[in-house]
Each structure stands twice: as C-alpha cells, then as structure tokens.
Design brief:
The complex is a heterodimer of chains A (about 250) and B (about 800). Chain A has about 250 residues and is an alpha/beta fold. Chain A is built from eight helices and nine strands. In chain A, a hairpin with a 2-residue loop joins β1 and β2. The longest helix of chain A has 21 residues. The radius of gyration of chain A is 19 Å and the shape is globular. The termini of chain A are far apart. Chain B contains 27 helices and 13 strands. In chain B, a hairpin with a 2-residue loop joins β3 and β4. The chains are: A alpha/beta (about 250), B alpha/beta (about 800). The interface between A and B is large, with 59 and 64 residues.
Amino acid sequence: MKSFLFLFSVLMMPPIFASAAETPDDELAEERRDMIAAIENDVRDTARLINRESFSERVMDAMASVPRHEFVPERVRAKAYENRPLPIGRGQTISQPYIVALMTDLLEPRPGDRVLEIGTGSGYQAAILSRLVSDVYSIEIISELGEQATARLQRLGYDNVSTRIADGYDGWPEAAPFDGILVTAAISHIPPPLVRQLKPGGRMIIPVGTRFQTQYLTIVEKEPDGSVTTRQVIPVIFVPFTGGHQ
Amino acid sequence: MRPVGASPPLVVIFLLSATALAYEVLLVRLFSIIHWHHFAFMIISLALLGYGVSGSLITLFRQLCLRRYGELMFINVLLFGISAIGVFLIVQRMPFNALEILWDSSQWLRLFLTYLLLSLPFLFVANSIAMTMLRFDASIGRIYGADLIGAGAGAIAIMLLLSLFEPQTILRLLSLAGLAAGLLLLRMSGRRSLSAALLGAAAVLVILLPSSWLELRLSEYKGLEQTLLVDGVGILDSHSSPVSRIDVVESRQIPFRHAPGLSLQSPSGVPEQLGVFVDGDAMSAIDRGGVGTGPGYRAYVSSALPYELGRRLDEVLVLNSGTGADILQAAAYGSDSIDAVEADARLTKLISDIFADYAGWPAIAGRVSFHAATARAWAASSTRHYDLIVRGVPGASSGGAAGVFAFAAGFDLTVDAIEDYLAILKPGGYLAITLWTDTPPKGNLRLFASVVEALKASGVGEPGRRLAWIRSWNTATLLVKQGDLTDDEIGRIRDFARTRGFDLAWLPGIEEAEANRYQILPRAYFHEAAQALLGDRATDYIADYEYDIEPVRDSDPYFNDHFRWKSLPQFLALPGRAGIAMIDAGYPTLIASLLQAVAAALVLILLPLLFLKRKASLASGSRLHVILYFTAIGLAFLFIELSFIELLTLIIGQPLYAVAITLCLFLLFSGLGSLTVQWLQEKGFATAVILRSSVFGILVITLAYILLRGWMTEHLMSLPLFARILAASLFTAPLAFAMGMPFPLGLTATSRSAPALVPWAWGINGCASVLSAILAVLLSMEIGFHGVMLCAVALYLLAWRTLPGTRAT
C-alpha cells in the first residue's frame, strides 16, 4: 500500500502558481524593451497577413511607456511583459501585447481624437489609447472589473480616460461622435448605435476569436458619405510556452 | 474476511460494472458542462487508463492478490465508492483552464493531476474485476459476462438517472451504489463489524456532504459564467438531461441582444430577450412577445432571404428549431403551417410551455407543429412537401476555439441529408441553410460543395442556376431552389443584399464587383470557391484548399472536421508559430489524447515485463501472443461498437435512444456471449473452435452490415421508431453476442498456458480499449465508419491467429 500512499501524497500537492515577487524598475524596463522587440518581431512575421510592415512609432512608444505589470494580478505579474495574453480573473484576459498594438495601430489614432472602448477589462488598452488621443471613453459591463479599472487608471494618472459601468451596446451618446471605437466583447452582430456614434471617416475594430487567441480582426469603416463597410485582417500569432523573450 | 465458497461474487461485479459505466458517462456529461466537450472526451479517455494500471499492479502483486483476495477486494470496492465522489471534488477545486493550455505550461501539470485523480475510481473497479478473474480462473466467462451485462445495465440506468436528476445528485447516488457493492460483498463474507462500520461511515459522509461542495464550477470563460457576472442577471430555469444542461437566463438591467449577422442597415432593434445556454455556452435567445406586428429585425438577417423573393411560403419546415428564432421568422412572414423539428425536447418545451407567454407562443401555436426528432429522421419519413426548408445558425459559443466540435459526428449536413431535404421540397420550393462564417472559410465552403454534389447526384445539369449565396458580417445563407432561379428572383436577391449591406457570394450572373463590396475579406473566398466548385476545377480546388472542405457522406459524417495533414507543415512554417491558431482545436486534441494514451499504455504494458522477465517459465512467444491477442480484441471491440453507435444514431433518429440502446445491447449481448463461452467450455468445446466460430460470425455480420447499410438507411428511416429500434437490435444482438466471446476465450487460454499473465492480459486489453476509443474517431475521420469496421474485422482475424497458448502448447 505504500505506493498508493505515495501516489496520494503526490496528488495532494497544491497547484503551482507563478511567482509574485516584486520586480525592480530597471529590470522591468528591460522586460518592456524585450516585449517591444517581440511585438516588432511579430509584426515582421505577419506583415503579409496584416498588410503592414511596422506599427506607427507613436503606438510603439505608447506600448513602451505603459506599465503593463500594473494591469495584471499579482500572481501573474512575473509574466506581465511576455508577449502573451494573461488571465486577470473573472474569466477576463488582458490581450497579447501584439494584438493590443495591432488593434491600436489599425485604429490609426491621432492626437486630437476621441475614442470609445467597449470592454474596459483591466484598463490596459484604455491606458495605451490615453497616450495617443485626447479623450478616451471606456465602458465595462461587469461592475467589479469596471470599478477596479477606474481606480487603477486614476491611480496611475490616466486623466483623459473616462469610465462608465454600463451596457456597451448603446455606446456613450453624450460623448459621441467618436473618431474610433474598439470593441472587445463577443457580439452576435455589430451594434447599430455604435455605428451611428462613429464619425464619418472613423473606424471601429472588433477582434474575433477565443479569449486567448485572436483569430481575426474586423474593421468597420464609415465612409465620409455615411456608408459602412467591414473588412477583415488575420493577425494570427501564437507563442506557446516560451513567452515573448526569444 | 473471504467471499463465500468457491464461487465468484458475480452480483458485486455486476453492480460495480454498472456503476463504473454510469460513472464514466456521468463524468463526460459533467466535464462537458464544466469545460468543453472535446476536453471532456480527452480527460475521460485518459482516466480510463485506470484499467491498464490495474493490470500492471495485479501482475506485480499477483501472489498477494491471491492470498488476500477478500480484504483487497473489499478495500478496492470501498475506495471506489469513496473516490467516485472524492476525486471529482478535488478536480473541481483545481484551477485548470483548458483554454490556456497552449500558453501556460503549469496547465499541463494540472491536466496530468486531473488524469491521475480521475483514473483512481476506474483503477479500483478494474482491480476488483481482475482480482476476481485471477482468483476464480475457472469462471472467467461468467465473471466477464457479469461485468458486461452489468455495464449494459449501467448504460440504461445512467440515461434514466440523467433524465430524472441533476448530475451532482447522480454523483452522490453512484458513490452510494459503489458502497452498496461493498455491503453485498460483506454479506457474502465472514467478519463484518469493522468493514461494515467503515462502509457505514463512508455512506454517511457521502449523504451528508454539503450540496454546495458538489455545485458545478463552470470554467469562468464559458458564456454562462461570463453573463452571470453582469449586474441584474439571474438564472430563471435550469434543467439537466442526458444530452445537455439548459439554463435560461434573464438580464434585468442590461438586455440580451442576440441577432446573428444583423445588418447594420436594420431600422429595427432587437426586442427584449432571455438568454438560453446549452452546457453553459452556445447561447441562443427567446424573444419577448414573439412575432409582434411584422418581421422587424428578422427581415435584416441573412436567413430572411427566401421570404423576400415575392412568393408566399405557406408550408415551412424548420430543422433544429432550438429556441424558435426560425419559427418566429417564418410566422412573422405569414407562413401558415410550420413543422418544427428539434431532437432536444427541452428546448421545445421552453418556448411552447415554460416561457410560452413570454415568447408570445399562444399567438402562433395554431400554426406550428413540433416533432421531437433529428432533421434527418424527419426528412426521411416526411410525407409532406414544403415551400421552404430552413436550417438556422447554431448557438454562439463564447470560448470554444474553432473546430472543437470537429469530432462530433452529425448527419444533418451530409450530401445524403441534402438529397433528403431536396426530395421533400415542392417544385419551386427553397432550402435555406445559414451558418456562422469564419476566416478563411471552411464549413460554408463544404456546405456549398455538398449542395453542388447533391444537385448533380439528383441529375441537375447546371446547379449554379439554382443557387444563391449571400453573406453578412458573420453569417452566410445558402439558398437552393427546386428549379432554376427566375430573373425576378435574381433581381430580388440583389435588392435584398444591397439594401442590407450583404455581399453576394454566388448568384446566376454575379459580377466580380458584387462579391466583396460591403463585408470585405482579404480575398473573395466565398465567390472564388463558388466559381471553382461549380466549374471544372472543383476537384483541384478542393484538393488544393488549405482546409478539408470535401463533401461528407453518412459513412463519414464529420462536417466540422477540416483538418488536413498536408496543410500542417504549411501552417507550422508560418513565422512565430502563427499557424497553430489556424489549426482547428478538435483534431489536435484527439492527436494529443492519442499520444498521451500511447505513451501511458506503453509504460503500463511494458513495466510488468521487467518483473515477468525473471520468470523463466514464461516463453517470449506467450508474451507476444498475449500482447497481440488482447491488443487486437481490445481495439476491435470498440471500433465496431463506436461505429455502430454512430451509424445506428442515423437510423434510430433519436441520438439519446440510439446511444443508450446500442450501448446496452452491445454490452448485454456481449455478456451473454461471454456466459455462453463458459457453458460451451463446460460442455467440452475446444477454445480454438469457439473462437473460430465467433470470429467468423463477427466477420459475416459486419460485412453484411456494411453491404446493406445504404439499403437499410433508406428503407428503415421512414419506419416507426419501434420498428427502427427493433431492426437495429436484430443486427446488433448477434454481432455483440459473438464479440463477447474472444476476451474470455483468450483469458481462459492464458490462464491455462501462463496464469501469471492473466492480469497483464487484462491490463493490455484495458489500454487497448482506451486507445481504441480515440483511434476509432481519428480513423473514421480518415477512412469512414466502414473502414473502421473493416479494420476491426482484420484485428479479429489477427486475434484468431494469435490465441495465447496455441504455440506454447
């Protein structure tokens, strides 16, 4: 029976979690540079699929300046700068940095723009946008997440981000029209109110796929004459196990 | 403590086997709810390796098992009862996330622990049976018979239990059933006090276990769990059945707005809705108020196309009617007589009974007839002809990766199915099928190819003249007319698409510019495919496409399997392993399951050899024969059983009945076959003679089935349910009877020639069965069910030539 007892003791071992050790800032700077390098690498690898050779300098600067580790839970903080999505609890994820950068780049943000985000999540995407446009409006449907993200964004000084806990379907009519809209929720159809709140010439980005794998992005474009088209890009990128430090 | 006299505790074996099979089915159900079906399949397949572990353990401790049979038997039965519920409690608390498995290496450790834990109950049951065979080697036929008949009873019992109780309650009941087997064992033994006290204590613990501990903790990434996080959301109704758990959810503050592919030009919004989740995912909706004053938003989804062609569509057949979206669409457009076919009766009950008032059911009840059947069974048996046959989009999965249903066989969209649907269309009638789109497209292209093939098979010279294909942002509707489309209809289709911002993928006379105008894809995939599939390049196009889009038939009904080996290097060569995301999840899951099972099986089969090597008396020929024989029959049994389950599902038409009846018949008659082996041996028939006869029987019946299946399907599907079940039973019973013989024959022969190898043979058979369940699915995807059955026949012939002891003696 000893073998059984040994087996049981092995089985009862607690699951292994990532270390949540505090990391010095200079080390984080290095990790952040690695993350940027990993994103640039991915852009080159997927240039044909996403129809661009590089992301704009402004977008990459924003990616380099926002402290991603502040937007993930303690238990996965050690992996904050890996080029991979991370679970942030409550079935939510913080997207892979490459996808965040791609979505932001596809939005083609300009300094004076007003942007709406549907699905605040951890607030990371809103923080990136806040460095690129004049006003960010972000809506979260789950109150607990929305409250946490609001507090986090305030603490970190992202003052041009307004948040709201509400249904993203109806958009934010008081702040409309928007130059760009980012939707991160799973949807069965593109909400007409959001299209109405998009400025002519503006664009909306919708990722499609599972929470850990964005398979394609849909870009909704509103032409100056008000007509609307959608366009798909396939950004598939996948870096299992090794994270972004390659 | 010793079991009574020289006879094996057959009743205990019967009860244990019944409980273990019920437990296996229950675990698949539980893990399909908690995670997703393909992961449930993988987890439970691997957990069944407990049977293989048992063989190795008993081989190593054979003498101990013989000497302390009574005590060890009781301990194993007791541990089964406790672990059946215990391991589930532990596994539920382990934070395993199936979606993150390719990103996070720690998930593999958790998955491995899940396998280990879940294999324990099966290990204890297998130990009990194997030890009994070892201890009562003159009664192997009877013991195996009791094992199989018990499992057959378990198959029926679990279907009944799943119809009556919540899965968590059944878990408690099965645990108690395991402990009851212990009680039976005690009644057959001498000393009772301590053992009885242990059993009693365990039973009390199981009964008193707080219900909250057993509550299912669904993956937080499933749609239902996500929805429940929203303020003001509550479950109004929850019901479990053998096929699904259905939750109806109300969102009081933030309304559901489920309208797949709704046009951006829709002037109407989506009404208030209730969300309906199947197994915590696959969301669909029930609209408040039903039809209302007109089609409203339902005129602005791609599935509205047939209603906008200027014809009155009085008689409509809605396939897989689910929560009624397509019924409401037909009713809103004024159809007078709607037949709605849905195999899951609970979904029908939701709209016509439980939430009838909410759904505005009374207003249309007089126009709708419900039929609890599969689409195929109805199409094959219907004497009515329709103006329109509709098959709408399935529920929306929130977290499941593409391709997770790759190995779920389905007969609704095979070429044979489409032929059946076309056969019950009135002249000039329409068949309209709507699917979700993906990029690059897979299922939609296969559907188009299948329709073209079905039309050609029906003698239509120019299928393209009968087809219209449009796509929205995320759905595509293929319209097939029983006759050529008229100029008026073509004009209306163009108008419909233009006013809603939908693109044309195919229409007689389509121009390139119409194909990729509003919903712009990287390439005009749909249109390119339509042109190729309707032209001379169809074969080359299908062969060259990166996914498998070849039409599927009833003998190979994996509509959602698009994996192609030849595309694998191309995907994997993409920089940054980008291509992994382009591979459907289902097929790799199967491959991963197979690799893990092969690795585990090799260890479990080879490990005891290190011990057995020391025994000079065992010739290597004996071992080789044992390996070949028990591997062959282990693989072959499930190859045939699983192929029959799938194919009889088509004939019987009710998946639930089909699985329960086929499984029960197979196990029951195999058990009788095994008991007959015992009787024949006692009458003096030689083992080799009985084996030859049984293999011959299997060969003849299987070949006859393969030859007659097409005829049977065509003629039986239109018979009443009872007649279909009877006909299926007539084929199954004699085949299963013959298939129940080789295992006890082999074990008896091994017991005579090399008794030390008996538990090892049991373990090999267990490992082979696990491999077989996975291989059967993989092979059937490649070579179809008939091919799998032929492989099984070949394996039985191999077994006939390698009966243990034949060379050694």
